[in-house]
Amino acid sequence: MKTLSFVPSPTERDAGPDGTPIRTSIVAPAPAASEERVLDRGCPLPLPAPRGALSAALLDLLQGSVDTERAEAFHDDVARALTARDRATSVVEDDDLQLTLFCLYELHYRGIAGVTDDWEWSPVLLAARERLEALFEAELRARVDVPALPEPVASSVAAALFTLAAQDSGPSIARYVAKDATDDQLRELLVQRSVYQLKEADPHTWAVPRLAGAPKAALVEIQTDEYGGGRPERMHSALFAAAMRGTGLDDTYGAYVDAVPSWTLAALNMMSMFGLHRRLRGAIVGHLAAFEMTSSIPNRLYGNGFRRHGYDETVTRYFDEHVEADAVHEQIAGRDLAGRLAEQDPALLDDIMFGAAACLTVDGWAAAHVLGCWTAGTTSLRSRTDA
User: What Pfam families does the annotation carry (predicted)?
Assistant: First the structure.
């Protein structure tokens, strides 16, 4: 398998004096463990490398003080780029566009290293983001097949969502990981997932102030578990960081952004777009429902895959936690969150089902990319020289 210089490459093991396998070190070893690292001090995203003209222009702009004239020039760059864009080119596969969106969204999360927080609410940047989002959303709505709408009754909506999740025919990375993935591929899986998992739950939390009554209470119940019930070391993002450290990876927030392809960024950008727009609150609720409904069994398989390679509870705890938690969450998300929201406001039902279908579809595209690379004997990650 071809490997990259900034991801864990060695898969061979040396044997110790007693014959016990010893894992070799990786090129970018994890920093030394400490309580501060385990509990996460909220470091911003490291400044990514640009992937094209738009992301280069944005990153250059963000490294200076807020400048309306320069921001307007960037907005004009976006407008010209979208006008000249080949309509046949997929937005989801456009590395430059997805990284640009990702960085604009990151201003609303932890920020970017060296970038002033004053950029977050720049009207010109928001206008530029709106142009990119319009193109992204239009492609999703055109390419995602939404099933027939159920009655806006909690039990009917929940049943329709469970049926949609059960009918998902996307490729299963989980089954491959459980039986066939190499040690190197397990680390790649963690790298691919780290861009979202190290901020796990945050995109869906944007919906909390946009809901009321039973749906709000249901979402808070789910998110309370995601955030460890008030215990920082039990936050799911902290458990995932521990899994990364346990496999020799760097668990720093955003450490592998430059390594992941457009498919991975698109899946997270979709969540951010749904969560940050009140008009798309139905979509983020539907997304979370599908996300939870397709989590429990896959996480059991992921845990088995890591155990197959000799990893201990430090690494598997994240996956094992989700087997039980998400079996409960899927019931809450289907009936009490999505179903009750549809009862409150039937006009949101279309977007609830769209958000669920989009979750399964986009995650399926990302999974197809990863599995296609792995079965071909290549890495699913980008090289440093990819533009």
Answer: Haem_oxygenas_2
Tens-digit pLDDT profile for residues 350-371: 999 999 999 999 999 999 999 9
Q: Examine residue 42 and state whether it is found in any structural domain, yes or no.
A: no
Q: Based on the domain organization, do 158 and 139 belong to the same domain?
A: no
Q: In terms of domains, do 197 and 319 share one?
A: yes
SS3 per residue for the chain: CCCCCCCCCCCCEEECCCCCEEECCCCCCCCCCCHHHHHCCCCCECCCCCCCHHHHHHHHHHCCCCCHHHHHHHHHHHHHHHHHCCCCCCCCCCHHHHHHHHHHHHCCCCCECCCCHHHCCCHHHHHHHHHHHHHHHHHHHHHCCCCCCCCCCHHHHHHHHHHHHHCCCCCCHHHHHHHCCCHHHHHHHHHHHHHHHCCCCHHHHCCHHHCCHHHHHHHHHHHHHHCHHHCHHHCHHHHHHHHHHHCCCCCCCCCCHHHCCHHHHHHHHHHHHHHHCHHHHHHHHHHHHHHHHCCHHHHHHHHHHHHHCCCCHHHHHHHHHHHHHHHHHHHHHHHHHHHHHHHHCHHHHHHHHHHHHHHHHHHHHHHHHHHHHHHCCCCCCCCCCCC
Task: For residues 95 and 166, state if they share a domain.
Answer: no
247 lies in the same domain as 159? yes
User: Does a structural domain hold residue 318?
Assistant: yes
Give the domain extent around 170.
154-375
- Tell me: the pLDDT tens digits for 249-262? 999 999 999 999 99
